[in-house]
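Lecture notes, unit on binding sites. The following record was shown on slide 14. It pairs a sequence with fe (iii) ion.
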Amino acid sequence: MGTKGKSIVKLDVDKLIEMLNKAYADEWLAYYQYWIGAKVVKGAMRAEVEGELVEHANEELEHAEKLAERILQLGGTPLLKPEDWYKMTNCGYDAPENPDVKIILQQNIKGEQCAIEVYNKLLEFIGNNDPITYHLICEILEDEVEHEDDLENIMEDIESMIK
Ligand code: FE
Ligand code: FE
Ligand code: MG
């Protein structure tokens, strides 16, 4: 990043890069959890759920992309090995071992709730000290809030069908 661009970042940059890399690990794991979940899911409203999971997978990948770009701008290195995703993750990985639609939705809702928590904490850490990263994290957080809401709405529809 340019010298002036760097000079406006007024916080512990190594700590920030570490937090961004942890979120980056979460995004890759979330991407795969959605991507493989969309393949295996079975049950009520399957086509609709599959479409939503694929859409979210793509958005998680965009988040990973944005985080990697910002880590590089800050002079850091995005995690280079998939094995580091497991070491660095905040939110973990929930394998869709049971293909039941409600269980897969529940696993992904839990993941979104964890992501919301992680990004909110990042915003608290950044405060007024790095407007560019702050803005980027706000954009990602906005998507995660939408993801949770989408999944909870589908869950509600499925539950009202089953009644
Ligand atoms: Fe995400
Ligand atoms: Fe998400
Ligand atoms: Mg959606």
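Take-home: The first helix runs from residue 3 to 7.
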